[in-house]
Amino acid sequence: MTRFTRAFGPVVLATGLAFGTLAAAGPQDDTLRAAMAGEILNLDYLYTTRREYIVLAQMTDATLFNMNPDTQQIEPGVALSYEFVDDMTIDVQLRDDVRFHDGSPLTAADVAYTYNWVTNEESESHAQALISRWLDRVEVTGDHSLRFHLSAINPLIIRDMAQRVMLRKEGAYHQGDSVDTNAMAIDLIGAGPYRVASFEPGVEVVLERFDDFYGNAPEIGTIVVRNLPDMGTQQAELMSGGINWMFNVPLDVARSLGAQPSIDHLAGPDLRVSFIVMDAAGLAQEDGPMTNLQVRRAMNHAVNKPEIAEFLMGGGASEAIYSACHPVQFGCVQDVMRYEYDPERARALLAEAGYPDGFSLDLWAYRERPVSEAVMADLEAVGIDVNLRYVQLETLNQARAQREIPAYIGTWGSSGVADTALIARVHFSDTSDRHLSGDAQVVEWVMAAEQTADQDARLALYSQAITRIAEQAYWVPLVSYSADYLVTSDLEFPLDNDGVPRLQNASWK
């Protein structure tokens, strides 16, 4: 039996602060108004997935643990400590001073109810597939203590607790014998730093600072999140003072408006990366050019990744990447074979591969057309005749599933989790149609890394897999993304390394 204990240091308690009032956006009324393009219809993150909902859940909900975005270390949340009693059992100790937004205390019974509900097929929770990978059931062992009985070893259990399961009151989705999966969609009762004061789906969410929040109190009293689907409307509202904050801003818009004296353009890192996946296994075209290692290496040398990062993706916050993952992710080793931009070397490799005059290539893409066109131009410059198939994501997914794609430009955000597992399991498992390498050894290493909680062993396995992917040039890693924001100059908005915007950490200058 192995035994591992992890306890946390002291936790700072919140102090009572008065609510702000709803008036004009700005420090004079302690009201931050934010714009989001994606329609907000459901406040319950157990039943949503989009980035807008993650941002809201960070403010309204509480989890057992928190993930420090700078260090990627687990920190206390509602739970103070956890202990692996053995490989299949975890004991968790809770704080005794946590309250839900309706004033009721949060106990072990609430936590057990939440997790057992998520894994119940009747719940149909969006978190179900993830949590059911490793959880059998949760048992209450005291008013503020629980035992998690696992169904499988999984190295990301504590991360999943920190990032995916928002805690609900016992019975939240039940009225007697009836079940209501929408019970928290509109009238959310969470335990986060802000409570929902009002919600008009598709229009506006008003959040007020929660005086009884157990952690560090946010500085801004009221946050109003407005649904503004049109980017032009968002820009006009920002310039007129109707909003203080907008995100997912196109680079050209961000640079233009950021030049205004009352508006700041902020650019920070994002865990999303882009890459070209090549059909090395010959699934779409047996013995086609993509099955040739020299061709794949030539394509790596052909693309000017630093230039794409600087001029098309946001400059300093976007970087060229050389591994099949994000550089800040655990297990994403950087000491791999690098293919620097070298068109002459690319042309020489193509000649060695038997393609001195190049070849024709259908290159599929669905996002960031300027990047796709830049990649196409670079490949054409070394003799590859590219037919850019720029389509909707659904069309690309269907074609890939039918094994019709020789190469495509993909992106992946890893759900904001800085662990190579989140990109490797999807792109290099034998059950995924994204896996075009045909390399059984890479699959073996990636799957083995998911079947151990030993971090040293995981690092070694991912190092082997990522190194081999680079040596065999199964991908052309392109660039990491930049998270671009526009904010009014009176707002202090810190940027985190994982690219997740945390409005609860904003303050007035």
UniProtKB/TrEMBL annotation:
Q: Which is one Gene Ontology cellular component term of this protein?
A: ATP-binding cassette (ABC) transporter complex
Q: Where in the cell is it found?
A: Periplasm
Q: Please state every residue range assigned to the domain named Solute-binding protein family.
A: 73-416
Q: Which Pfam families does the annotation name?
A: SBP_bac_5 (PF00496)
Is Signal there in the keyword field? yes
- Chief subcellular site? periplasm
Q: Provide the alphabetized UniProt keywords.
A: Signal, Transport
- Protein name stated in the entry: Peptide/nickel transport system substrate-binding protein
Native source organism of the sequence: Roseicitreum antarcticum
Q: What is the lineage of its organism?
A: Bacteria, Pseudomonadati, Pseudomonadota, Alphaproteobacteria, Rhodobacterales
